[in-house]
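User: Structure please.
Assistant: Input sequence and predicted structure:
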Amino acid sequence: MPALPLAAIDFWFDFSSPYSYIANEWVDAVAARHGRTVRRHAILLGATFQAAELKPPVAFPLKGVYSLRDFARSARFEGLPYVPPPDFPIPTQNAARVFWWLQATQGEAVATQWATAGLRGMFTQGLALHRPEGLAALAATQGLDADTVQAVCADPQWKARLKQANDEAIAGGVFGAPFFKVDGEPFWGNDRRAQIERWLAQGPF
């Protein structure tokens, strides 16, 4: 009798999260080394912060300065390009709605391509995903019609789908991004990679 497939790694991200950009670049390879796949969830950090009574790191006078430095250093540590976006943080509900539309209509792989292109665009090219022209530029890289993408952003169905994703994340204990669950075990932050690798290799510790 063939073995059952191992559970996917759940990965919550926000398009305006530098650490989500970094984690998105390594999570698939880590999963593949251990026979896993990745299931992505686009969310809004603002919703999780509100539920957890938190603020973005850059909102704090001292921590904010450190965080901006750490974003760039963490990217360098992973060998990734990083260009601080001119506007930061930004609202990312439109990019997230398109993610959920693509996942529902074209599948996980296409939605993943959108997520990766959006995060790279935000943190290596200064792509303003909160502006129509920025979203249109991202759409063009993915072979999507800009008018269709704008219609998706305004469609109540995809607004509701993103709200559902936020609500489900909060109900499941997600309070930031990147956030992972491996076999139901939660890991918060790009800096939890080593713990995730050990869990995947050896099981609970």
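The mean pLDDT is 95.
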